Amino acid sequence: MLFSVDEKDPRPLYEQIVMQVKAAVVDGRLSVGEILPGVRELADGLGVNLHTVHKAYQRLRDSGIIDLRIGRRARVAARTPPAGKREVDRTIMRRIEEIAADAALLGVSRQEFSRIVERAVAGKLKGAPS
Amino acid sequence: MLFSVDEKDPRPLYEQIVMQVKAAVVDGRLSVGEILPGVRELADGLGVNLHTVHKAYQRLRDSGIIDLRIGRRARVAARTPPAGKREVDRTIMRRIEEIAADAALLGVSRQEFSRIVERAVAGKLKGAPS
Amino acid sequence: MLFSVDEKDPRPLYEQIVMQVKAAVVDGRLSVGEILPGVRELADGLGVNLHTVHKAYQRLRDSGIIDLRIGRRARVAARTPPAGKREVDRTIMRRIEEIAADAALLGVSRQEFSRIVERAVAGKLKGAPS
Amino acid sequence: MLFSVDEKDPRPLYEQIVMQVKAAVVDGRLSVGEILPGVRELADGLGVNLHTVHKAYQRLRDSGIIDLRIGRRARVAARTPPAGKREVDRTIMRRIEEIAADAALLGVSRQEFSRIVERAVAGKLKGAPS
DNA sequence: GTGGTCTAGACCACC
DNA sequence: GTGGTCTAGACCACA
C-alpha cells in the first residue's frame, strides 16, 4: 500500500491522504495517467470511511492533480500550466517564513535551516519541473 | 499596532496572532524581556474577542515563547535550549517537503523554489541563532 | 472524425457526444437525413465504450434529433415544431441567468458578457431557424 | 427565506443552493459583508440535511464567494480580481454555445435567442461589474 | 453558538 | 464495477 494515515497527526485524515498523493506524484511514485486505488479499496486499506477518501479525492480533483469522474477510475492528471505566478510565489513564501520562524525559536541556526531545506528538496522532486 | 488579523486568511485567528508574535520575536522587533500588549488592549486593536487573544497567549506560553503569569504583563521569555535536536530537524523537514510538493505541483521549479526560500529567510531572522 | 471526447471535461462522456451532435446539426455540418457514424465505429474512433455511444444516441433519439431504428443506420431527423413555446423560453432564460451570474462573479462586465454571447452565436447557427 | 430547493430539479441539492446564493449576490439581494444563515438554520429551513448545506457553503468558499471559517458566521466575501481572463471567457462561451444549440433545436430563432438573453441579463445584475 | 470532521449506510448515475 | 449524493448522528475546534 502506497498510503497510510496517522491517528496522532492533528491534521484531518482526508488532508493526510491529499498530501500523500501529492507527494507521490511529485517524487515520481505516481506518474501521469496512472490509476489510483478506488475509493472503497483505499478506504479499506487505510481503515477509514469511504467518505473520507472520497473527500480527499475530490480535493485532489479540485486542485487539478487527478482526473476523477463518475464511472471511471481515478487517474493522475496531466500537468496544467499555473495561473498566477506572483500569487503562487507569495503564498509559498509566507508558508516558508512561518516555518523559518518556528525553526529559529527552536534553536535552529540559519545555516542549519538551509541545510535542512536542501536535504528536504534533494531527491524528492523527480516529477517536478526542473 | 504591531499585529493584525486577516479576514481572508483561512487559519484560525488565534493562530495568526501566535504566528505574528513568533515572527516579531525572530526578526528582532520584540526582544527578550520586552512586554507585549495586554489581552484586552490587543483584542480591541485587532477587533477580535478577548478569548481569541487569550488563547493565542496561552499557546505562546506553552511553546515557551512568552512568560505569562496572572497579574503581570506578558513578556518575551528568555530563549531556552532545544530539547530533542533530531526530532526538531525531522519535524521541520517534513513541513518543508510538504510545501515543496505543493510548489512543484504549482509549476515552481527547484531553482525558483530555492530562490524563494532564500528570500524568505534573508532579512527575516535578525533575532535568530546564527 | 467529426467528434471527440475531452478527458478533462467534467461532463459525462455520453453528454459530450450528445452536445457535439447537436452542435453539428445546428451549424450545418450535419443536415437532415444525413447518416451518423455507426455505434461501434464511433465508439472505436473516440476510444470509449459501446454503451456510452449507445446511450448518447438514445438521448438524441429521445430529443427528436435523430432517427434511430434497429437494423438501420442513424440519420438526422426532420425538424419538428416546438411544443410549448413559453416553457422553452423560460427554460433557456433560466440557464442563461445562471451563466450570467457566474460570469459576473468572475469579473465579466455586462458589456463583455454581451459581446461574448454575440461571438458565441455568430457563425454557429447556420442550420438554425432564422 | 431567501432560498429554496426543488426536488424535481435534476441538479444536486447542494448545487442548487450554491447557484441561488450566487444569484442573490449578483443581483444585490446579498451584499458584501452580509451574513448568511447558519448551516443548521438553513438546512432546517430547506428541509435538507445539515451536510448538504455545509457542502454548498464549502463550494462557495472555494469559489471565493463567501468567507467561511470555524466559529464565525458565513459572510459574503469582498470581490476579488479575476485570474485568467482568457480562460474565463472561453469557458463562458462554451456554455453559451451549448445553450444556443439547444435553443436552435427547439425552434428558437437567432433573434428570439438574442431577445431572451437581453431579458435574462437586464435587471438581474445589480451587483455585477458594469 | 459557529463551522469541521468522521462514521455509517442507502441509493443513484456512469461506464 | 466505478464515483456522486443524501441522510443521520456523533464529536471536535474555534470564537
Notes on the protein architecture:
The structure is a homotetramer of 130-residue chains. The first copy, chain A, is mainly alpha-helical and 130 residues long. Helices cover 52% and strands 3% of the residues of chain A. Chain A has 5 helices and 2 strands. Chain A has helices spanning 13-26, 39-46, 50-62, 85-105, 110-121, and strands at 66-67, 75-76. A two-stranded antiparallel sheet of chain A has the order 1-2. In chain A, helix 1 (13-26) packs across helix 3 (50-62) and helix 2 (39-46) crosses helix 3. Chain A is globular and about 50 Å long. At the A-B interface, helix 1, helix 4 and helix 5 of A face helix 1, helix 4 and helix 5 of B. The structure holds a DNA duplex (15 and 15 nucleotides).
Structure summarized in a few sentences:
Chain A has 130 residues and is mainly α.
List descriptors.
homotetramer, 130 residues, mainly alpha, Arc Repressor Mutant, subunit A, 2 domains, two-stranded antiparallel sheet, 2 strands, globular, DNA-binding
| Morphology of chain A | globular
**CATH architecture grouping of the largest domain in chain A:** Orthogonal Bundle
Report, as a whole number of angstroms, the end-to-end distance of chain A.
29 Å
Count of helical stretches of chain A: 5
- Spell out the helices and strands of chain A N to C: HHHEEHH
Strand order of the largest sheet of chain A: 1-2
Computed over alpha carbons, the radius of gyration of chain A is: 17 Å
Estimate the strand proportion of chain A: under 5%
Which class do the helix and strand fractions of chain A yield?
Answer: mainly alpha
Q: Oligomeric status of the shown chains? A: homotetramer
Task: Quickly name the level 1 CATH class of the largest domain in chain A.
Answer: Mainly Alpha
Q: Characterize the biggest β-sheet of chain A.
A: 2 strands, antiparallel
Please indicate the count of domains of chain A.
2
Q: Report the uncertain regions of chain A.
A: none
Percent of residues in helices of chain A comes to 40-55%
Query: How many E strands of chain A?
Result: 2
CATH-derived topology of the largest domain in chain A: Arc Repressor Mutant, subunit A
